[in-house]
Amino acid sequence: MAETTEEELKVLAAKAGLEGLPAEYRAELLSAYRHLEVMLARIRQDRPQADEPAHVFVAATFARKA
Amino acid sequence: MAEFLTIAEASRRIAARDLSPVELLNTCLARIDAVDAQLNSFVTLTRERAVAEAKAAEAEIMAGRYRGPLHGIPYNLKDIYETRGIRTTGQSKTLADYVPAADSDAQERLSAAGAVLLGKAATWEFAHGGPSWDVLFPPCRNPWNLERDPAGSSSGSGASIAAGMVLGSMGSDTGGSIRGPAAANGIAGLKPSYGRVSRRGVLPNCFSHDHAGPMAWSSEDLAILMKVVAGFDPADPGSVDLPVPDYTKALTGEVKGLTIGVPWRWLEEEAPPSAPTRAALDAALEVFRAMGATIRPVELPKLRAYEDAKKIIAMAELYTIHGPELRQRPELFGASLRYRIIAGGLIRAEDYIQAMRLRTELARAMQAVFTEVDLMMLPAGEPAKKLQPQPPDSLFTKVGYTTAFNVSGNPALALCMGFDTEGMPFSLQIVGRLFDEATVLRAGDAYEKATPWRQKRPALVS
Predict the structure, then answer these.
(1) Closest partner residue to B346 among A33, A38, A45, by Cβ?
(2) Distances in Å between the alpha carbon of B118 and those of A12, B11, B139, B433?
(3) What is the distance in angstroms between the Cα of B60 and the nearest Cα belonging to chain A?
C-alpha cells in the first residue's frame, strides 16, 4: 500500500478543519496518521453489499419514553 | 489502622446495627488523610457531604428504614460521571470548571440506595489518554508500590479501593479501563454487557464501545453493586430492557459442570504473556479444574483484528466529540490524548463503516464460541510496571487481552489471581455470554473463596 503523501495529508487535514493547526501539532498529526493508515489498510476488504455495520438505526430506541 | 471491610461484610454489620455508617466513613476518611497525598486517587473529596449522608443513613437505619446492602457504604465515582453540583472534569483542562446540573444514572441509583458519596476519582483525560503529567491533575499512583502504574483509565477507582479509602466505585471501560486498573491494583472490576448499565451522564469516550461498570474488592461486592446500578434506562440509546437478576443469589460457590474456554492461540502465538503471568493463569485454571470445571481451547479471530476495528471506530468517534475544541485550542489537551485522537478527523466515512462491518463479524465470532463454552478465561494483563510517560504511539502498537470484549460487548471480569515476586498483583479475566454477568460473578466469587488472595492489602495501608 502506498503511503499517503504529505500533500495528500494536507488536503485531508483541511477537510477535517485542521488547516490552521500550529506546526508542532501538525507533526503529531502526521505521526499518528502513519499508524492509522496501517490499521486502515488491514481492515479494507471486499464485503457483500448487504453486509450491515454493527450500529444501524433502531427505531425502537425512539419509541421509548425518555 | 482499622480492619478492612468489604461491602458484603460492612453491610451485614450495618444491617445488624453492629457498625455505624458514620464509623465506617470515619475509617475511610482517616485512610484518605493518611495516604491519599501520596496516591492522588481522589481529584475531588466531598467530605462534608459524605458526613451528612452518613449521618442521615445512620438515622434512617436506627429508625428502622434500612434501604438495603449499599445503605451507608462509602464509594466514589470516576470523574467522568456527572454529579449535580459537584465538579466533573474528566481530568481535562477543557472541563476544569464544569459543574453538572444533573446526576448520572449511576449516581441517581447509588444515592437512592443510600450509599455515601465520598468524591470523584482520578482518571485518564476523558478516560482515554494517559498516564499524563500535563492535564488538570497529577496521575494517580499504585498503592502496592508508589512507583508503579495503577493503569487506566479508572486509576483512582482502583487505587482507592485497594487502599481501603472507599468500598466501591464506578468506572468505565472502552478498551479495558475497568479491567486494567482492577488488575493493576489487585481488586475486582466488571465490564458488564454493553447496554446492561446506563451510560447516561457519563462523559463519552467512544459511544459505541463505552461500558459503565462497578469496581470493588471482591466479586461478591460487585454482585451487590450490580443489583443497584444495572437496569434499563430509556435515556441511554444503548440500554437494554432485560430483567436484572439478584446477582448475589448466583454466588453459590459452585463451578462444577461449567465448561471454560481458553483462547490458547492468542496466548501462545499472537500475544504470549510473560512466563510468571502464564504460570499464574495455569494455576488459576487448575483451581477451576479441581472444583469440577472442564477446560478446553477455543478459537477466535486475531486479537489484532479486534484492536483495529475498535481503534478506528474510537478515533472517529473521539474526533467527533472533541474536534471542535481540538481545532480551536489544541494546547488544552494533554499530549497523550491529543495524539490518540488528532488523526481521527482524517478517517473517511467508508473506513469507519468498514470498521463497523468488521465489528459485526468479530462479535458474531465471539458469540459462536459461547455456544461451546460457558465462560472464557485469560489474563487481564501483566502486573503493573513503572509509572512513566508512555510512547505516544503505544495505543497503535500494543495488543491487549481486554479490547476484544468491548468489541463483542460480552461481560468481562478482572480479579486478583496472586502476586508476583515483587508483590504486584496478577489478574485473571473471566468472560461470559452476553447478559450472563451472573455466571461470570459466580465463577469469580468461587475462585476468590478457594484462594487466599483476598486476605492481603497493600503494605502502604496495612
Answers:
(1) A33
(2) 46, 17, 19, 34
(3) 32
Tell whether omega for the bond before B131 is within 30 degrees of 0, i.e. cis: yes
Domain boundaries, chain A: 6-63
Please identify which residue in the block is written with the cell numbers 454493553.
B194
Return the sign of the alpha-carbon dihedral for residues B76, B82, B83, B88.
positive
CA of A62: which chain B residue's CA is closest? Answer: B237
Query: What residue type is assigned to position B297 of the chain?
Result: P
Distance CA B242, CA B240 (A): 6
CA distance B367 to B365: 6
Chain A environment of B347 (Cβ under 8 Å): 36, 40
CA distance B374 to B292: 13
The H or E element that residue B430 is part of is strand B425-432
C-alpha cell at B79: 470523574
Bridge-based pairing of strands B259-262 and B294-297 is parallel
- Provide the shortest C-alpha distance from residue B307 to chain A (in Å): 9
The residues of chain B scoring below 70 in pLDDT are: 1
Q: What ipTM does the predicted assembly reach?
A: 0.94
CATH top-level class of B7-302+357-455: alpha beta
Residues in B closer than 8 angstroms to A42, CB to CB, are: 304-305, 308
CB contact under 8 A, A40 and B351: yes
Cβ contact B327–A18 (<8 Å): yes
| Chain-chain contact of A43 with B355 (C-beta, under 8 angstroms) | yes
Q: Is B356 left (phi over 0), alpha (psi -120 to 50) or beta?
A: alpha
Residues of chain A with pLDDT > 90, as a percent, come to 64
pTM: predicted TM-score of the whole model, two decimal places: 0.98
CA distance B340 to B330: 13
Distances (CA, A) of B446 to B254, B449, B452: 6, 5, 12
Size of interface A-B (CB pairs under 8 A): 100
Q: Which three cell numbers stand for residue B394?
A: 503505544
Question: What is the pLDDT at residue A59?
Answer: 86
Looking at the predicted structure, is the pLDDT value of residue A64 above 80?
no
Of A39, A44, A53, the CB nearest to B311: A39
- Choose the mutation target among B302, B311, B346 for the interface with A, i.e. most A CBs under 10 Å: B346
